[in-house]
Amino acid sequence: MLAIDLPDAEAQCAQLAELIRHRLRPDTVLVGIHSGGAWVARRLRELLGLNNEIGLIDVSFYRDDYGARGLHARVRPSSIPFDVEGRPLILVDDVLYTGRTTRAAINELFDYGRPASIQLAVLADRGRRQLPICADFCPWQVDLDPAQELVLSTDANGRLRWSLAEDAHA
């Protein structure tokens, strides 16, 4: 496994908030993808001083590899506590890689209604896309070996941090 210097995920959240800030509208809402995207969406809500609740989605049942990989051991319920019809949404995830998770999330969002727009915010874009999806907001682009997995987690104090792991699906 190649060793790389991993950036401070908390500092990246602050950078991401500044990238988003000038494009916010009063009716914009954040939707985080479980689990890393949900953590980042919560942090962005704080940093941006948003009063709106955030939405949380679990794309497990919308993945195109559901049959091959099976159901994730920790499926969480999706919660969209607002009307998405006609609203601008910012979909938030920790890592953008193949684009398949983003596609699954967009499919799920359309089950709730037809948003005015969907923009994508991620902490890291690791390239090697399999679908034509790109991030609108991203503070870090990194090229990793396909056998590596970039993992966002929280420490005992709730701070976000990056680590590298072997990708079990590569």
TrEMBL record:
The record's listing under InterPro entries reads: PRTase-like, PRTase_dom, PyrR_bifunctional
Print the organism lineage: Bacteria, Pseudomonadati, Pseudomonadota, Betaproteobacteria, Candidatus Accumulibacter
Taxonomically, the superkingdom here is: Bacteria
Give the keywords, sorted: Glycosyltransferase, Transferase
Question: Does Glycosyltransferase show up as a keyword for this record?
Answer: yes
Q: Which Gene3D superfamilies match?
A: 3.40.50.2020
The entry's protein name is Bifunctional pyr operon transcriptional regulator/uracil phosphoribosyltransferase PyrR
GO molecular function, a single term: uracil phosphoribosyltransferase activity
What Enzyme Commission number(s) does the record list for this chain? 2.4.2.9
The residues covered by the Phosphoribosyltransferase domain are 10-135
